[in-house]
Amino acid sequence: MRRIVAWLFLPLVLSVPSVALAAPAAVGAVAPPAPRIATPATPARTALAKELVGYTQPTDLMLKAVLVGYEKGAAEEGLDASAELDELAPGLGARLTERGKAELVALVAERIPQMHERLATMFAANCTEEELKALIAFYSSPAGSKMIRSITLSDSGGDAFDDAKLTADEAATANRAAARDAAKSLSGDEWLAMMSFVASPGGRAIKALGPQVQAISADWMTELMADFSKRIEPIAEQMVAEAVEEADKKAGTN
Asked: Global pTM?
């Protein structure tokens, strides 16, 4: 049973970059940013920070990324286990995969507000109103939204980790790889807009806060993977037990 649960869990691990990479990214060579000093957030900064994470971590895009990553992982890594399960009951492997996907999507949908809240709290405490407005302006622009979409749906950097605990360094490595790939999709005008943003106070702010963003993303994903494992294990056990019982009944009637 542990092997079956591990098989269901693997596509989630392979889809991790899709979610972690949704963290804001800036591409380009700029001077090292000055350290940020957190201050008590004001209502205005909190409201702006919540608006910002709606652009940088869009719920619909994150859910799509998880689905794409899960299906790809299941297709690439689950063939042997699926065949083994189908020996117990035809189609059992596919049914388990679909149930795992449904449980994962439900869990991610439940937990996205948690990530939004953590990121918004961090941005509100570390950015000025002017910086937050500049970040919103860029990430809601054609260039910024294209970068976010490309990074979120990217599978670049997926080999940066190989276990169920995602570290901030691993998230940052995958993020940089995806950001480089995403930048290649920009038009000339979009590239100029991005480079102008990178050199701006808003761009310097997001670069300075990158480690905090990646740490929040990595912790959230690690918690998500642990919770998914707890949720899917009893479900998988029940589905397999029911399939075996049904198979035994059919065998007894033949």
From this structure: 0.78
